[in-house]
Design goal:
heterodimer; A: seven-stranded mixed beta sheet; four-stranded antiparallel beta sheet; 0% helix; globular; B: mainly beta; seven-stranded mixed beta sheet
Chain lengths: 125, 108
């Protein structure tokens, strides 16, 4: 079964750090680009960051650039998001998502066909 | 940055009716890199359409996507009870990638 399982969320004070993990199974992890998407309570979806299969291409939303770092370990079939200098507005459910191949050559892949169930991050004092 | 604007915000329809959802981009979306997702309460989003008009695996043919450039449409030909949900468009043609604000399809 194709599956993504996020972990690492929790309650954290403003200015502190948190590291999210996403464990992949049921597909060849190192064949695909991966992404993080978040959703604040009662709000819409916001793309956070993406990484190509070999970590050669990485992108970030402007709202997290310089504070968040995406990485992956293909040997462990795992995706990570290191979140530093957290703010109240980072409070959200964080999803990891697998991108479909883009045969047009986009290293960050295409649309997201597999999603995890998310891990909740709450930034509050 | 490409901004996606979805309309209407809420669509009130009855089962069996046709739903037409719009997604307008502030700039042309390259190579029709436009996707549509469905999200139900308490669930992760589900990919419906990619490349503006290609149905994802397992998606019923009552869902169809069309459009190019800056104007895209998701059509549900005959609403089934399980189709009442929130729908998001997404562009993945240029960084930063982004989503529209969503259209809620509710039972009238």
């Amino acid at each position: 079964e194709v599956q993504l399982v996020e972990s690492g969320g929790g309650l954290v004070q403003p200015g502190r750090s948190l590291r999210l993990s996403c464990a992949a199974s049921g597909f060849t992890f190192d064949d695909y680009a991966m992404h993080w998407v978040r959703q604040a309570p009662g709000k819409g979806l916001e793309w956070v960051s993406g990484i190509s299969w070999n970590s050669g291409s990485i992108g970030y939303a402007d709202s997290v650039k310089g504070r968040f770092t995406i990485s992956r370990d293909n040997a462990k079939n795992s995706l990570y998001l290191q979140m530093n200098s957290l703010r109240a507005e980072d409070t959200a459910l964080y999803y990891c998502a697998k991108a479909i191949h883009d045969y047009g050559g986009n290293p960050l892949g295409g649309a997201f066909d597999i999603w995890g169930q998310g891990t909740m991050v709450t930034v509050s004092s | 940055e490409i901004v996606l604007t979805q309309s209407p915000g809420t669509l009130s329809l009855s089962p069996g009716e046709r739903a037409t959802l719009s997604c307008r981009a502030s700039q042309s979306v390259s190579s029709s890199y436009l996707a549509w997702y469905q999200q139900k309460p308490g669930q992760a989003p589900r990919l419906l359409i990619y490349g503006a008009s290609s149905r994802a695996t397992g998606i019923p043919d009552r869902f169809s996507g069309s459009g190019s450039g800056t104007d895209f449409t998701l059509t549900i030909s005959r609403l089934e009870p399980e189709d009442f949900a929130v729908y998001y468009c997404q562009q993945y043609g240029s960084s930063p990638w982004g989503f529209g604000q969503g259209t809620k399809v509710e039972i009238k």
